[in-house]
């Protein structure tokens, strides 16, 4: 798989406190990567490091194949657009003026792309309105537009829906999906709101105590969180034959256990297994919701 960002044993220490403690992660190109973790888990610290705002204490990261210790990292970092913590916008200026300033900072010779950018983030009708009079959602969208000025192919968003109302959240979600699908931008989003990320992410990194405790694709996560019946039997080969014959979806877990998906008639199954000399030892409903999955990973109180 091609990655636009990988980190290896990344550490960031503040005095005696390790905000990042050997964090290793892999962000596939083209993905929407959800970095999930409770407050203080280290999400913003990680984003500050890869954006070049801070240096790691030890460990390394690689952006588009270039290590952070390589001189070329400064050039590669131009491929990243980031909104870290609060969007970097001037409150006494309009949306258009803010984008013009960013174009100047980046040395872009003309303002040709600004109208399209304003359309993209749904701020084309704001005219002379100063950003201090914008809603939080409008400010967040403008922050994303500022991050998009250099036409990045990797967008990093730190808690982009924090504090937004439901409409604001939907607008940001739709924008993120468009940027990913239509413009093929890889997106890393940090959030402690797992349910919101679940509507977007194609990959997840669960972070806790400054390390990634699990990386998983959305397909794997959905499979792990599906409702199923966990069956323990004396002969899984016989179980496979019976389930295949009945057209039932299943997943073999071990020599004795299998997860069975969908509706099943327990009586029919038990009878068919008996004909194969296979006995059911136990049967348990298994319903791992997204939240339970997360809690099982990180333990402790509910934070996501
Ligand atoms: P949140 O969602 O609350 O922002 P987070 O996952 O983004 O959480 P970080 O902001 O990365 O967490 O902080 C990780 C830990 O590092 C926290 O305990 C925080 O207090 C600590 N920390 C962050 N920056 C500094 C700093 N400059 N000096 C000392 N400690 C810091």
UniProtKB/TrEMBL annotation:
UniProt GO molecular function: ATP binding
Record-annotated ABC transporter domain positions: 5-234
**Pfam families reported for this sequence:** ABC_tran
Highest taxon above the source species: Bacteria
Membrane-spanning segments: none
Keywords of the record: ATP-binding, Nucleotide-binding, Transport
Cited PANTHER family: ABC TRANSPORTER, ATP-BINDING PROTEIN
- Identify its protein family: Belongs to the ABC transporter superfamily.
Q: What is this protein called?
A: ATP-binding cassette domain-containing protein
Question: What is the species of this protein?
Answer: Blautia hominis
């Amino acid at each position: 798989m091609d990655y636009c960002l990988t980190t290896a044993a990344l550490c960031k220490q503040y005095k005696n406190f390790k905000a990042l403690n050997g964090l290793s992660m892999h962000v596939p190109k083209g993905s929407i990567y959800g970095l999930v973790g409770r407050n203080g888990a280290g999400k913003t610290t990680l984003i500050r490091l890869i954006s070049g705002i801070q240096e790691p204490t030890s460990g390394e990261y690689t952006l588009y194949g270039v290590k952070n210790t390589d001189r070329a990292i400064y050039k590669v970092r131009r491929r990243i657009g980031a909104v870290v913590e609060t969007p970097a916008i001037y409150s006494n200026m309009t949306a258009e003026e803010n984008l013009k300033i960013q174009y100047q900072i980046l040395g872009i010779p003309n303002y040709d792309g600004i109208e399209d950018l304003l359309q993209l983030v749904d701020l084309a009708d704001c005219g002379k309105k100063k950003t201090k009079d914008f809603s939080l959602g409008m400010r967040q969208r403008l922050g994303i537009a500022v991050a998009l000025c250099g036409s990045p192919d990797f967008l990093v968003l730190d808690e982009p829906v924090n504090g937004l109302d439901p409409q604001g959240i939907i607008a940001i979600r739709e924008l993120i999906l468009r940027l990913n699908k239509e413009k093929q931008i890889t997106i890393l989003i940090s959030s402690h709101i797992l349910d919101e990320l679940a509507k977007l992410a194609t990959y997840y990194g669960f972070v806790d105590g400054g390390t990634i405790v699990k990386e998983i694709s959305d397909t794997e996560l959905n499979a792990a969180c599906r409702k199923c019946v966990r069956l323990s039997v004396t002969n899984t080969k016989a179980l496979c034959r019976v389930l295949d014959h009945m057209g039932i979806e299943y997943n073999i877990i071990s020599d004795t256990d299998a997860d069975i998906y969908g509706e099943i008639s327990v009586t029919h199954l038990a009878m068919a297994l008996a004909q194969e000399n296979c006995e059911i030892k136990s049967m348990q409903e298994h319903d791992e919701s997204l939240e339970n999955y997360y809690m099982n990973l990180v333990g402790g109180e509910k934070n996501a």
